[in-house]
Design brief:
With about 280 residues, the chain is of the alpha+beta class. It has two domains: about 110 residues, 2,3-Dihydroxybiphenyl 1,2-Dioxygenase, domain 1 (Roll), CATH 3.10.180; about 150 residues, 2,3-Dihydroxybiphenyl 1,2-Dioxygenase, domain 1 (Roll). About 20% of the residues lie in helices and about 40% in strands. The protein contains six helices and 15 strands. Strand 6 and strand 7 form a beta hairpin. It is globular.
Length: about 280
């Protein structure tokens, strides 16, 4: 990413709306999205390989280009101002698009084959609620987002931090790294066991987080110790506020997915992230 700096005009109360993903045109992206339950919703009027893919409130704007590295190259946010339309770049060159809901509908209507909906289909996948932002200049990047967003810092160390939106719907985990990249996204799911079961006959492999030994949680009766370990589910949190998670390494080229069923758990689990991250290629 290039180093371009631009500040927001105000501190906005914004939440994740869509992920901008560029991919090498030779990768079978449509098949990968379909395998995970996403639907191609709309195609750009002038660019055949620029498409919206969605599953409920989890939206991806995927653009295929020749000779590029497949990666997230931007994040779209939904603003409380329904007519807002703003594009900026953070200090690492990551494009941030901030749109009001009415403006988003107009952009799609004017430029794409058909409208998209934020409530699309029956699926265990609910939304995209978190990203992991690896950054070389970790303190400066963290400070940029703290300065320009109405996000609260839930915790931080010399190498990692988590920011959370005021309504606790969106999270960014910052990690000090030797590269600038968003390599992992968090997808909220309604029922993680149903999600995993729906993937059984698809060509998908879940990351093995290792055996869980702590079961001091108020779990549903069908979420037994055997199910959790056999389904490769990671547990974290407290007795009543916890998260059940599983992950797919390179669900899309250059991008890992972590699927989270959150039970009154308004955070990103560092414990589970570390379990998955050591297994990501």
């Amino acid at each position: 990413m290039g180093r371009v700096c631009c500040s927001m005009k105000h501190k906005y109360e914004i939440n994740f709306c869509f992920v901008k993903y560029q991919y090498n045109i030779h990768h079978p992206i449509a098949n990968k999205f379909e395998t995970m339950g996403f639907t191609k919703l709309s195609t750009h009027n002038d660019q055949e390989h620029k498409n919206w893919y969605g599953c409920n409130r989890s939206l991806f704007l995927a653009t295929g280009l020749p000779g590029v590295e497949s990666e997230i190259n931007g994040i779209g946010f939904l603003s409380e101002n329904s007519d807002q339309d703003e594009k900026i770049k953070d200090i690492n060159g990551l494009e941030l698009t901030i749109l009001g809901e009415r403006k988003l509908e107009k952009v799609v209507t004017d430029n794409y084959s058909q409208p998209i909906s934020l409530n699309l289909q029956k699926s265990s996948i609910i939304n995209t609620y978190g990203i992991v932002y690896e950054c070389v200049n970790y303190p400066e990047t963290l400070d940029y987002y703290k300065t320009n967003w109405k996000f609260e810092e839930t915790r931080s160390t010399d190498t990692t931090a988590i920011l959370r939106s005021p309504n606790k719907r969106s999270f960014i985990k910052f990690v000090k790294s030797d590269k600038n990249a968003i390599s992992t996204t968090y997808l909220g799911v309604e029922n993680i066991r149903d999600l995993i079961s729906s993937y059984v006959f698809r060509d998908l492999e879940f990351v093995d987080p290792g055996v869980n030994f702590n079961f001091n949680y108020e779990l549903d009766e069908n979420m037994t110790e055997s199910v959790i370990n056999n389904y490769k589910i990671a547990l974290a949190g407290s007795r009543k506020n916890y998260v059940l998670e599983t992950a797919i390494d390179k669900a899309l080229p250059g991008l890992n997915f972590v699927f989270s069923e959150r039970r009154q758990y308004n955070d990103i689990s560092d414990l589970n992230y570390d379990k998955f991250n050591t297994k990501f290629s």
